[in-house]
Amino acid sequence: MSEFKCKDPVALNLWYAISALEEVRQGQIVRSMLLEEPIAYTRDDSGQVRCWAGGDKDSRALPVQERYGYFWTTLGKPTSEIFPIPEHAEADRRNIHAATVGVNVSAPRMVENFLDMGHFPYVHTDILGAEPHTEVKEYFVEVSKERDEILATNCLFWQPMAAAASDGGADVEYVYRVPHPFCSVLYKSSPLDETRMDVIAIFIQPYNQEQVRVHMMLCLLDEENTDTQIRLFQQTIFGQDKPILENQHPKRLPLDPRAETPIRADKSAIAYRRWLSDKGITYGVIPSAA
Amino acid sequence: MLKLYDYELSGNCYKLRLMMSFLGLEHTTEAVDFYPGNQHKSEAFRQINPLGQLPVIDDDGLVLRDAQAILVYLASKYDTSGKWYPCDDPAMLGQISQWLAFADGITATASAARLHDALFYTHIDVDAARSGAHRLFRILDEHLFFAEEIGQTWICPGDHPTIADIACFPYIMLAEEGGVSRMDYPAIRRWCDRFKRIPGFKVMSGVFPAGPAADQSAA
Fold it and tell me: Could you tell me which CATH class the domain B90-207 is placed in?
């Protein structure tokens, strides 16, 4: 693996979402970055997505998989499949690519922000939270050995405007999954059907250790709003997080448990940091001193 | 009824949302899928604005583009106080126009760097955009410093903000997203805090309100 600038074999062997399929067009080559390696992609004459490492078309072809409306690739040899999101295949759901946004932050800081509920009333004021409803109630966190993912359940939060389809404040239940070191999937109560949940996923493509681009996928029950309204709602939320993310220091996530002082609401973040440590991830983090 | 063609994350659209909020102007909004939909470049939208840019307003059939032009129009037509754009004061109008053009320069630099970093406008020379933004920020910071020295609160003279302040504010606030820090511009940062306390101020994604503690001390 010494040919790569990224020296983290775990990170090299992961699958990464690179682009929404609808944005990969015939006759147009798009250049991007993955783990500091220049990559490029296009759609060939037969309609297949092609992706390669390096600048020129005769460079090394990379594997391509299409999943959840994006194409995924890897620089290494993945030891597992792309994680499942079964809801994406449910016929009555709206699967929407909300946006791909560049953020000057490390991938793990981005994941932690996605897991955090404590910031809702302060950063997403009057949408995902509002004072004085600031309490993060006790929730459960487990690491599933079998699926190798983190699961946070029974997360409850009072939200004034939980989704584009909401018509007022409600106690909203969240479930969070971290099935990939740099991807997370959240489930939240659907405003339309109390027995089901909306799905929002972020797939992070690290440019390098401190800059990423984030692909946001929605898988919703919503019969009212247009795609544009749904996208813009999500982008409004994301635009509020962005300056917070970009002002975190250090940019890389410290894995030493003593480096940053957690509170009870950070239970899922603590589990995430430990999980990254156990995996031996060194990319985008400050590993704890052995 | 006044209609704004709007995109939440656009600083230029935010200028008009601010103006309408300061004036308490009722209006409707048509959300445009600027990103990733690129709807402002569509054939249908080019019928409204051939330049394919946001924002645009439609005020009972009068269609106007360009944030600065629309600020001039809204303030001239709807500001009964006459303070945001004092039409009868040539010296003020000259200075306001000067800073409106300056605001366009901020868009061409600080906003361009933000589009490069966040939305992959890869054709932009981001280093040139950033250094251009710093050059403008240095000039505005000095201007605001010396204005403060003579008791002037806003970009232009007088005791009331003008559309020059509105035009300059958004992309200064959003500059960090393009890697342009305000750290070295203390007079700009003080002006930003004063701006956030103008009655009717509202935020956009990426802009946060002034803190309550400082609010009390200002009162």
Answer: mainly alpha
Beta bridge partners of A101: A214
Separation CA B66–CA B57 (nearest Å):
9
The DSSP code for A282 is: -
* Distance of alpha carbon A16 from alpha carbon A41, whole angstroms: 14
CA A111: distance to chain centroid? 6
B18-64 per-position pLDDT tens digit: 999 999 999 999 999 999 999 999 999 999 999 999 999 999 999 99
Domain B2-78 top-level CATH class: alpha beta
Rounded to the nearest 5 percent, the helix, strand and coil shares of chain A are: 20, 35, 45
**Superfamily covering domain A86-286:** Naphthalene 1,2-dioxygenase Alpha Subunit; Chain A, domain 1 (3.90.380.10)
Contact criterion met (CB below 8 Å) for A30 and A100: no
Provide the pairing of β-strand A65-67 with A16-20.
Answer: unpaired
Amino acid (one-letter) located at B129: A
Q: Report the residue count for chain B.
A: 219
Angle at B4 (CA atoms; ends B119, A242), nearest 5 degrees: 30
d(CA A185, CA A218): 10
Q: Is the pTM of this model over 0.90?
A: yes
State how far residue A215 is from chain B, nearest Cα, in angstroms: 11
Global ipTM: 0.88
Burial of B151 (0-12, 13-18, 19+ CB in 10 A): exposed
Which residue of B6, B8, B9, B204 is the best one to mutate when testing the A interface, meaning the one whose CB has the most A CBs within 10 A?
A: B9
Q: How far is A153 from chain B (nearest CA, A)?
A: 28
